[in-house]
Amino acid sequence: MQDRVRQNRRNAIWAIPLGMALLAANAYLVLAEIAPDIRGLLDRAPAVRITPLSPLAITALAFPLVMVAAVIANAIPCSKTVLKKVEYALMGVLAINVLSIAVSFLVVAPLQHYAMPRMGYERCNILQGHPSMYFTDWVSNPAWCVRGKSREWVNEQALLAGAATASEGGRDAH
């Protein structure tokens, strides 16, 4: 028993910082990559990137927290009932993450090919920075789907097109 507690305490030295690093990396991924893409979709941005596994990144935020709680509970050591509750929480978070992966591949991936064209977008996987086959870029104007151009370029083209339309409308009013 004492050897197990001692080993758990040794493991806690690296497991707790690892858990916090995983949490920070996942939070950064959600805030820096996934949230702007969702915001762009809601704002009807000219170029949008769909990441089918984005639900996993959001649900996975809880995993490092529960993992750190399990490491601490084993290092203290806590009673068997507390350890069982932490174990059930860990299994629950893992089950939610597996369900999230299933939803991502079985619902989000096919749904984008149905919903995005209805929202006025066209698939464009030739833009610069298209990371892999697991991400899909969509543009609101097919003319903006140009090989080697970035999503920022597409946004600039949309601004220029909007400015040109506004200036033409202003000339008609006079």
Overall description:
With 174 residues, the chain is mainly α. The chain contains five helices and three strands; from the N terminus they run αβαααββα. It has helices spanning 2-42, 54-59, 62-75, 80-118, 151-173; strands at residues 47-50, 122-123, 136-139. The chain has a three-stranded antiparallel β-sheet. The protein is elongated, with a radius of gyration of 23 Å. It starts with a helix and ends with a helix. The model is unreliable at 170-174 (pLDDT under 50). This is DUF1240 domain-containing protein. Keywords: Membrane, Transmembrane, Transmembrane helix. The chain crosses the membrane at residues 56-76, 88-109.
Q: How can the largest sheet be summarized?
A: 3 strands, antiparallel
Order of strands, widest sheet:
1-3-2
Radius of gyration: 23 Å
Strand content: 5-15%
- The SSE string, one letter per element, is HEHHHEEH
Q: How many DSSP helices?
A: 5
Task: Quote the average pLDDT.
Answer: 89
Find the structural class using helix and strand composition.
Answer: mainly alpha
**Residue ranges: pLDDT <50 for 5 or more in a row?**
170-174
Compute the number of strand runs. 3
Spatial gap, N to C terminus: 88 Å
Quaternary state of this entry equals single chain
Q: Name the helicity range.
A: over 70%
Shape field: elongated
Task: Please describe the structure with a list of short key phrases separated by commas or semicolons.
membrane; 71% helix; elongated; 174 residues; transmembrane; mainly alpha
